[in-house]
Automatic annotation (TrEMBL):
The lineage of its organism: Eukaryota, Viridiplantae, Streptophyta, Embryophyta, Tracheophyta. Residues 563-607 form the Signal recognition particle SRP72 subunit RNA-binding domain. This is Signal recognition particle subunit SRP72. It is found in: Cytoplasm; Endoplasmic reticulum. Belongs to the SRP72 family. Residues 567-578 have a biased composition (Basic residues). SUPFAM superfamilies: TPR-like. The keyword Membrane does not apply. PANTHER family: SIGNAL RECOGNITION PARTICLE 72, SIGNAL RECOGNITION PARTICLE SUBUNIT SRP72. Residues 1-20, 544-679 are annotated as: Disordered. One of its GO terms (biological process) is SRP-dependent cotranslational protein targeting to membrane. One of its GO terms (cellular component) is endoplasmic reticulum.
Length: 679
């Protein structure tokens, strides 16, 4: 904001210092204007202080000082200046809210904006705060109000498209861009946002091409603005991460992992892109290399200060969206469960509800921890309590409860959970699951009622892919298997009359054979005859006694054509597989053919000869006395010496017989002492 020159400043009630009076106010305001025009904001703040020293409470000087401090990223000083001037009749609420927004005190910033006139600047700041808080519906309401002012700003239009995608309204992006009169090629941010909308609509090939276009546009624009190569790479890092994510969604796992690792190894200064790449890499790995994944996440999540137990490193709390932060903490908790670190997982669980009070992720992760602790009933109780308390967020919670209950054998609870989600109750997968669960319970009538309800719903459904035929065919097969041939016959007949399905015709003939033989014969004529059964006499086949069981095996000669014989005898030549580093041209000496045999069985084995030269001759009593004399000092040395090496030296100093006995006695004593120490 460029200050205007002042000729008649407001009179100040307090006396001015002599040093400040020496410079005329006109010159100070001219210097202030010059510094603002040249973006020398620190110098502008100093000159504004000189003006305020001469004329305390001057509104223009105070505004210039606050703006200069904000432009120079001295947010704390700007906020303290605003708070120190609250006694003055100067309206600085917008700047105060902006400073609180920069300090990530979002709720306080919204409170400051309450009651203020909703001009374009207030609405833009409010929408940015709501976007950071993840309140996308309220954010879009603010942007709708901003559009009434008809502000022609490309940055504002880019933010509107980004908020539209974040609120889950990607289908409206193209229409909104046409209304705002912008194209995806206007700048690389818009091209990136448009690619994100294509990803949400699962148009991955188009999204990949759009991301490549965004990278090309960004490189050209930033090179024209004289950005350095590393700065360009940092600015375009989100596009690189999103390209890797598209590869991941397309099932190109190796390409995605290679792209993520390339981004991480380059160690870009864009901390948010590095965090997203790390998180996506960990989710792509799954349960592989859990320890390495935990080490990577520990660099992003650290112990908090004050009341907060955890916080993100590198100011990521201010840079990532709420959904991205939830994903980081959720992946860390799941990895801790995989590593069986339940105590650390419990610490994370206790901190999540305060960090994400409006999210469903904390209660789902709490249920996962309870299941890991084999407390399935407690997990079901926690989930149903949350679903009853927040019915608008109950769908993923009820699905999780149904899965946990089915895995634990609580089939009735699983059925009740699925029946509480009316929007998916008639989908083929849900119908199949409900029928299977009720069959396990033994409630066949309820299973049939689920199928009948689904048939009625699909009859009136106005969808592109109608599943009525599929549901009717499965319902007919179910009723046929459970003794309801009449109902199954009616369903099969409706299918035959509506579409003429061969499978339905076969089913109708089979069911009508039990209930209405004339109808079965009538529809049987519509079946096509098999080519191999034209000369087969059915009556004579029925009179045959059937196949006989013959004891023993009999060889049956089957004539095989010559071409089939040649095809069978022809063996496929395969290229031999060699060990790693083996050169078939220089194989070296052949391996020992007896290398798999024990050494005693090899032809080259030669047993060691016993040394009979040191044998002691004499009477039996003399040998026993010598043994007794030699054992006594050896035993005392093994008791007195704590080191096992001294015992080894004593036994290996000589090859005589008594000392061999000593070593065996030593090993027995040491083995007993080890067992005692273990107990």
């Amino acid at each position: 904001m460029a200050p205007k020159a002042k000729v008649n400043p407001k009179p100040s009630p307090s006396p001015t210092p002599p040093a400040a009076q020496s410079v005329p106010l006109e010159d100070l305001f001219a210097a202030l204007h010059r510094h603002a025009q040249n973006s020398e904001y620190e110098l502008a703040a100093r000159v504004a202080d000189q003006v305020l020293a001469i004329a305390p409470g001057d509104e223009d000087a105070l505004r210039c000082k606050v703006v200069a401090l904000i432009k120079s990223d001295a947010i704390d000083k700007a906020l303290s200046t605003i708070q120190a001037s609250r006694h003055l009749p100067i309206h600085l609420k917008f700047y105060e809210a902006y400073c609180l927004y920069r300090q990530n005190k979002l709720h306080e910033a919204l409170k400051v904006l309450d009651g203020q006139e909703r001009n374009s600047m207030i609405l833009q700041l409010e929408s940015q705060i709501l976007y950071r808080l993840g309140k996308m519906d309220a954010c879009m309401e603010s942007y709708d109000k901003i559009q009434r002012f008809k502000i022609d700003s490309l940055d504002l239009k880019t933010n509107i498209i980004a908020a539209l995608i974040a609120s889950g309204r990607s289908a409206e992006v193209q229409e909104t861009m046409d209304a705002l009169k912008v194209k995806a090629t206007s700048n690389f941010e818009l091209a990136y946002n448009y690619a994100c909308s294509l990803i949400e609509k699962k148009k991955y090939a188009e999204a990949e091409q759009q991301l490549l276009s965004a990278r090309r546009i960004g490189q050209e624009m930033l090179m024209e603005e004289d950005y350095a190569d590393d700065e360009i790479e940092t600015e375009l890092a989100p596009i690189a991460v999103q390209l890797a994510y598209v590869h991941q969604l397309q099932g190109q796992t190796e390409e995605a992992i290679e792209a993520y690792m390339s981004i991480i190894n380059r160690n870009l200064s864009d901390a948010s892109s590095l965090a997203v790449a790390t998180n996506n890499l960990i989710s792509l790995r799954g349960t592989k290399d859990v320890s390495d994944s935990l080490r990577r996440l520990d660099r992003l999540i650290e112990k908090g200060t004050g009341a907060r137990q955890f916080q993100l490193a590198n100011s990521l709390d201010f840079k990532l969206s709420t959904r991205q932060k939830e994903s980081l903490y959720a992946n860390r908790l799941l990895l801790l469960l995989q590593a069986n670190r339940l105590d650390q997982a419990q610490e994370v669980i206790s901190a999540l509800p305060e960090m994400f009070p409006d999210g469903v992720t904390p209660v789902l992760l709490q249920a996962a921890l309870l299941v890991r602790e084999k407390k399935a009933a407690k997990a079901e109780e926690v989930l149903i309590h949350y679903a009853d308390k927040f019915p608008d967020k109950s769908r993923p919670v009820l699905l999780a409860r149904a899965q946990i209950a089915a895995a634990a054998g609580h089939f009735q609870i699983s059925v009740e959970s699925l029946l509480k989600i009316p929007e998916i109750q008639n989908m083929p997968a849900t119908v199949a699951t409900l029928v299977s669960l009720q069959e396990r319970i033994g409630d066949f009538s309820s299973a049939a009622a689920v199928l009948d309800s689904a048939i009625d719903w699909w009859k009136n459904a106005m969808t592109e892919e109608n599943k009525l035929d599929l549901i009717m065919q499965k319902a007919a097969a179910f009723k046929l298997n459970h003794g309801r041939e009449e109902e199954a016959s009616q369903l099969y007949e409706k299918l035959v009359k509506s579409h003429g399905n061969i499978e339905a015709l076969v089913g109708l003939v089979m069911t009508a054979a039990h209930t209405d033989l004339e109808k079965a014969e009538l529809y049987e004529k519509q079946l096509k005859q098999l080519s191999g059964l034209k000369q087969l006499n059915v009556e004579s086949l029925e009179k045959t006694p059937g196949a006989r069981h013959v004891e023993g095996t009999h060889a049956v000669k089957v004539e095989v054509p010559e071409d089939v014989k040649k095809a069978k005898t022809k063996k496929r030549k395969r290229k031999p597989r060699y060990p790693k580093g083996f050169d078939p041209a220089n194989p070296g000496p052949p391996p020992d053919p007896e290398r798999w045999l024990p050494k005693r069985e090899r032809s080259s084995y030669r047993p060691k000869r016993k040394d009979k030269r040191s044998q002691i001759r004499g009477s039996q009593g003399a040998v026993v006395r010598e043994k007794h004399d030699s054992i006594a000092p050896a035993t005392s040395s093994s008791v007195n010496g704590p080191s096992s090496k001294s015992g080894q030296n004593t036994s290996s100093s000589s090859k005589s017989g008594p000392q061999k006995v000593t070593s065996s006695e030593q090993s027995k004593a040491s083995s007993k002492s080890k067992k005692k120490s273990r107990s």
